[in-house]
Amino acid sequence: MATKCTIPTIDLHDFPNQLSKLITTCEDWGCFRLLNHHDILPATLMSEMKAVVTSLFDLPVDIKRQNVDVITASGYTAPTNANPLHETLGFYDMASRCDIDIFCDQLDTTSHQRETIIRYIEAVYELFMDIAKKLAEGLGVKSENIGFENWPCQFRLNKYHFTSPQSVGSSGITTHTDSGFLTIVQDDDDVNGLEVMTKSGDFIPVDPWPDTLVVNMGDMATVLSNGRFCNVKHRVRCKETKTRVSIASFLLGPRGTVESLPELVDEDHPRKYVPTTFEDYRKLRFSTKLHAGEALELLYAPTSDKVVASHITN
After folding, report:
1. Overall number of domains in the chain
2. pTM to 2 decimals?
């Protein structure tokens, strides 16, 4: 059941004053609305990008199908009988200019569309680095010891076909957590639908707020923070008969071993999760069909590597 409430806001212009609030928000909520990011990602660019996204989804299906996966569920997905309301485009890795160009080539983008996509991704990536470094600072960890700039990213465009009265109340995306570290969402500024779960287990609506962003913490944030950061559960539901579009960017995690940061592990705060890799963890989520954070329970220390490996390979 959804209850009337609102997620916290973080003002990017009010640092370092908001540093403590940022950490507390990530611990208690695992999500927030980002305000005053326009020095990096201006409202005009957000508007231009939404127009590009809308035009890409209007392409013929045979062109959209050229947007093939690099990793599972990274490319085009058409509506299905199981999920008839949701369509996606995207690619891995948005931190790679080569991968951006491949994505644009797959969809035969115009020069204007390509330029807009590149400028948008560069701005979001800069936001990723800014927010990630603030999170590290708030945890008392040197960001250079983490190496955020070396982490891969994923880019996903979402279209929800909420056009039929029979769709109202239906699910666009079922309840899940994000598998990566940090997600930045440019949500639809006209059409409602996004809901997040509070720690009490209630879903609350994240109502449209033009020219702002929604930031979610994912499973890797929970692991790296040794359980301090909340990997927020969220979903999208149809609430009105309007097409809905959103743009999601994911800072995934280290390319190598993922484990709780050593600065956050001591006698009073023992390591909660066994080391893994992001790719192994993704496989674990897919093989077990545990997409709402439950897969992290399979990594609880002292869970043996053999147990984790068996879930990945089965």
Report:
1. 1
2. 0.91
Is 55 strand, coil or helix?
A: helix
pLDDT tens digit sequence for 90-130: 999 999 999 999 999 999 999 999 999 999 999 999 999 99
Tell me the CATH number at 253: 2.60.120.330
Is residue 86 situated within a structural domain? yes
Q: What is the mean pLDDT of residues 199-211?
A: 93
Encode burial over 55-74: b for 16+ CB neighbours within 10 A, e otherwise.
ebbebeeeebeebeeeeeeb
Residue at 299 is within a domain: no
Q: What is the pLDDT of residue 4?
A: 52
Residue 285 lies in a domain: no
Q: Is there a contact between 121 and 46 (Cβ–Cβ < 8 Å)?
A: no
> In whole numbers, what is the pLDDT of the chain averaged over residues?
91
> Do residues 178 and 219 make contact, with C-beta atoms less than 8 angstroms apart?
yes
Could you identify the residue written with the tokens 């990017």? Answer: 12
3 domain-assigned: no
Which residues, in sequence order, are bridge partners of residue 173? Answer: 236
Sequence-separated (6 or more) residues with CB below 8 Å from residue 268: none
Strands 9-11 and 31-35, sheet pairing = parallel
Domain of residue 37: give its range: 9-262
Closest CA to 38 of 239, 213, 160, 257: 213
